[in-house]
Write the structure tokens for this entry.
Amino acid sequence: MARVYVSLKKSVADPQGQTIKKALNDIGYEGVAEVRVGKFFDISYDGDLENLERVLKEISEKVLANPVIEEFVIEESA
Amino acid sequence: MARVYVSLKKSVADPQGQTIKKALNDIGYEGVAEVRVGKFFDISYDGDLENLERVLKEISEKVLANPVIEEFVIEESA
């Protein structure tokens, strides 16, 4: 099992996060200064997935993230 | 700063994850057995956010997650 985190690059505006931040401020959580939203993908694989590290990087670059505006972090677990 | 992870409950089908799994299998990553998708929210707050733990739980329950079909995990960091 691996988890891939995908988030917008810091330089890219996150209107969804801004909307959530504003909503939280409006309902009384005024201390919330910023919200940024990301996705994660929990990937289970069977024993045949060779070259795991390379494959996860490929999958992330090609399918899970848009490298133009997003960055990703891969976390392998047992 | 805190991060809230929101994911579908295990018992809830994840069609988006299933679609990604199928796409990965179709382009040659046959070892991928399951994909499940979640969201995370990076929340920055200023010093005025008292009762941090309670507030984060409230925000998660009320705004970030749909408790009927989703579960959440709160991770506080420095």
Remarks:
- Helices of chain B lie at 15-26, 52-64.
- The CA atoms of residues 25 and 66 of chain B lie 30 Å apart.
- The two ends of chain B are 6 Å apart (CA to CA).
